[in-house]
């Protein structure tokens, strides 16, 4: 199987929700790159930050890509978002979670990447598994054994993130996973994962 033989069914949906007046999420869902960026910094700054992340990846649409292409796009995004942050008192930033379809060792793979608390899940059969790890204060406390995972949903500072595009640390975690026939990937901001349980 090659990348060109992979058949994808793709859908994207974004909603302002019940809490905010403006939607600061931006989405790119165009092969071979799929991502969700969640802007921070209030209306305008957050909108611009998440849109800048998407814009940094748009040149990859329709191309045969390599891992370095994704790294370069993340660097471009960080540079632009840092500029946006400098224009606003409150600053600006964006989380990002995504997947890129590429060939690795002769087979199609997903390159997963994330910065912040937007997530990638995989649904295989009836099992939904979170593939990314949040860059958040709550997750750091869980990892350190100072907070139980089941208490994250009610942790008062669960929305405090420790990495963001445009922030002091915008380092992405990334890894390769083979493409599996029939799997479904869900990419989402905390506007979904923070509001409903996995179940």
Give the key terms.
single chain, 199 residues, alpha+beta, five-stranded antiparallel sheet, three-stranded antiparallel sheet, 8 strands
Task: Kindly describe this structure.
The protein has 199 residues and is an alpha+beta fold. Helices cover 22% and strands 28% of the residues. The chain is built from four helices and eight strands, in the order E-E-H-H-E-E-E-E-H-E-E-H. The chain has helices at 45-57, 67-86, 137-143, 190-193, and strands spanning 25-30, 33-40, 93-104, 107-115, 119-124, 127-130, 173-178, 184-188. Strands 1-2-3-4-7 form a five-stranded antiparallel beta sheet. Strand 3 and strand 4 form a beta hairpin. Helix 1 (45-57) runs antiparallel to helix 2. It is globular, with a radius of gyration of 17 Å. The chain starts with 24 loop residues before the first strand and ends in a 6-residue tail after the last helix. The model has no long low-confidence stretch (mean pLDDT 90).
**Unreliable runs:** none
pLDDT averaged residue by residue: 90
Beta-strand percentage? 25-35%
Number of helices: 4
Give the H and E element order: EEHHEEEEHEEH
Note the overall shape.
Answer: globular
What would you call the structural class?
alpha+beta
Termini separation comes to 33 Å
Main beta sheet: 5 strands, antiparallel
Question: What is the strand arrangement across the widest sheet?
Answer: 1-2-3-4-7
What fraction, in percent, of the residue positions are helical?
A: 10-25%
Compute the number of strand runs: 8
Radius of gyration: 17 Å
